[in-house]
């Protein structure tokens, strides 16, 4: 079949597949699910899911902080009236299960067989203001939880439906903000925090940043392609190929039911800059052949034959770099690795189907620089090659010195993360969360499961006393600013039965008194706080609390001390405990980050080793290839250590991705060298010819990669910022190592044994 007909058929087939991909992309949705960042398959996750099914999730809430006017306190009647009105409004909203507010907090008193809930605050009775405020400050659980210590702010806590998705969550937040404006609260006087707030902001920013980064990348790559090829088709064709691959990748992701989240949002940008490599190598090689007077058809066939092998291997190594992220137990990272790896392979397929078909149907291009005038790139690269070899001792010595310093600096990297790690310190959302850290109990939840020993219930006096001991430790040594447990319930009931006197807020002295209290507990069973702390049959209890977000390193140390206290100071024959909760699961991710990173890097290195062994049958050549690609990784690790950048979920992917991408140009280089050696038995001349052939494509693709990743530094997410910055630096150091260390190492280590040359094979260009 004639090549033109094959080209038309190829374009028709690819167009139909692209339309199908477009159909699925139209159904793609943005999402940020906090729960997705739990370690999948972990026993602690399974335990927490069962625990939350019994007691509710510890992060299904929204905190609303309200500040009093300057110079005034929250006990002003007008302020409290507005708070009360707002509280009633929120209580009537859909998806709000319960509202805790200073104006609906009550002091229960039992008289006869009835329970009277006496409010702590009386906004309509100004004369009681002094007495009310005095009572509030004497009552445990109010100051620091609902009312700030300095009496300048209050909190309203909204308990929401479990795992509320973004649309209803956004509707609820919009309604609250509208009512706040109607009540006269200026934006600077109120603060919102919680999973719903982060979910709403993250998704909106993902959508905005995806458009911005893609636009910046398209502009940047277009400029670089124009300066490289100086032809319209040298710009348009690579863009068509890569944008088609992005469409296919996103369509596949949508067809598999995966949404765009904080990690998969990187796929289009990542693919856009990475996917350019094959198209640039093909067009550069095609241009070179045309420049040497080869016909269009022959030039295209030679290009596909000679570029296909190297491009296939580089696509394989790059995709493996992404596939290794599937070792992660964090679902967003797993999905990102899987679909980006597949999309890289799809880019390779399109580069060797769509691109040749379009080149075949275009007329023979007029080259800007005829062969007779020579190639300016040859002169530049030739001088660079001579300089590198002339100063090889300086290059090697300087590289060794930088490497030693980088390794020393890299040892300072610490694994640490916080709940809002991906937001910068001055981000409005983080500032709002910080408000609750300063003024109230904090935003980091704490959960401890309480299991009475066989034959006991959670209301046994011995169990309650052990629980009270744990509470004391958590408040004095662990750092909880708010705590609630079955002990809280019994103390509250005892106080209610004794006229609401604060002096009676304590555990009973005898089993007989406790038995009377337990019988009266049923009077309070309908109160949400009671249902959330004890199972109806008293077979299990929950100790919950809040504290500042101290970060995973500090939390790990606190948890180790807590477990030691529980082992040594709590009688396990009375009550058994287990630390659980969403914050505990997020922290646990850090324990697997290093293992996942080492596993991913090891798989990458093994695969590259096998590829080089397959090509050259030489262990020496394996070392030659690995060194220029591992050196940039170690240098960037040193930069991280020097800059104090912590290893966390978002930054843990940097090294495996960077290695997989950086080795791409090396694979192209050595595969071309393999072909050149079939024609040129002299190793020095073969390396020089390969350097001149591959140098232009290596430099151009590296500039595009570095430039593309550098657009990510404008992200408002710290994780995305560091991914762009550090991968960009790795690739920048990588191209320097490629053009300096690689030729030196090949000439020094590789022992080439010339084979009989059956017939010359013209191998030119990149």
UniProtKB/TrEMBL annotation:
This is SSD domain-containing protein. It comes from the Bacteria. It is a multi-pass membrane protein. The keyword Membrane applies. The keyword Membrane applies. The chain crosses the membrane at residues 210-229, 236-260, 266-287, 308-330, 336-362, 593-616, 623-643, 649-670, 691-715, 721-750. It is found in: Cell membrane. Residues 239-361 form the SSD domain. GO terms for molecular function: transmembrane transporter activity. PANTHER family: MEMBRANE PROTEIN MJ1562-RELATED, MEMBRANE PROTEIN YDFJ. GO terms for cellular component: plasma membrane. Keywords: Cell membrane, Membrane, Transmembrane, Transmembrane helix.
